Amino acid sequence: MASKKAAQPISVFEASASHFKKFRSAKKKASAQYLASQPQVSALAALAPIGSPKPEQNVVGVGIGEKISNGLSTGVMAVKLLVRVKFSNDAIPDADVLPETIDGLPVDVEQVGTFRRFASKPNPRKRFRPARPGCSCGFQDPNGQFIMAGTFGAVVTDSGKTYVLSNNHVLADENKLPIGSPIFQPGLLDGGKPSTDQIASLTRFIPLNPAAVNRVDCAIAEAASASVLSKNILFIGAPNGTADAAIGMEVHKFGRTTSYSAGRITSVETDVTVGYEMGSVQFTNQILIVGHNAQPFSAGGDSGSLILERGTNRAVALLFAGSSSHTIANHIGDVLQALGVTLA
Amino acid sequence: MASHDEIRSIKARHGQEILSKPGVSGVGIEKDDGGEYQLVVYLADDGARANVPDEIEGQKIRFVTSGPFRKQ
To answer: Could you give the 3-state DSSP secondary structure of residue A342?
Structure first.
């Protein structure tokens, strides 16, 4: 398989169909030799130190691509051998040295580490018991005109009682629902059933006032039992206390619609007009967030999500509104103070 | 360059009036690329730009087309 002398280099920009045929054939050979006996890699095995230069263990992928030399593109087509660890040839037994060519075609060895499955993100629209922040929740319209879902943001407590924290418009339908109204997980829009999926009852909301300037859109619902809720946010874990939001702070959240997203705070004192079913409502001193890579940080249904500083998981904000480019959130301190609760 | 407090007091004096203009979604404070505080007006659409002056009390306003804000 290995040969001494490489054929004329083939440019990646000029490779013809017959060139590709040769490379595919060489790739097939290499795959058969190196990849056929690969054991399945579990998450645990991936953590074990990998030291073997034996090609059967070290080569984790075979492909066709551009040869990279000292980090620079060369424009030359090569058979790519992807390895866990790239060893210097004089540090390993001759038998383990990878060939410089295969069927006369150049070989490029690239270190990629160990491949394994990405940790999969949970689906926030499913039923969770205990219910976990980040998942779908909501109320039932007493008139049966619509079904909805928002996000369960956090577990909060006061005087030994345990509550679901979310927005007024997610738990109380914009001031409309009577205290004691059932709260479901998942929300009815996500298949929650009134007969089996109640987790809490509406306890308190801060009224939204279209005729005044507001600071928060928040409400709490007392848990049916303390054990029906977990404080561990899906994918993110438990919040680690609270902090003041600051311009430039890197934040993340897990919500019912866009699940996990990360972004950056661009303002902590913006006054906004927000559209509700009841009409326009003004808020003062709100937090603005933009998503990374021009991706939206949130969308409809993410309301109620807790927003945390990325490095520390300290809670900084409660998500409640936005546009296609911006997310708006209340300061978490304002929310907890208005409701008279603390973060669990 | 205006201090954070100066920008805050300009926002306090004029924010409500600017927010009441048609097509204005928000009035806030951000930092520019050089780290200086600046007044920002968020617009529901580009057309609303004409409803707000370019500067106020000598402070240049930065405009951001955010679209209208809705509950999520």
So the answer is: strand
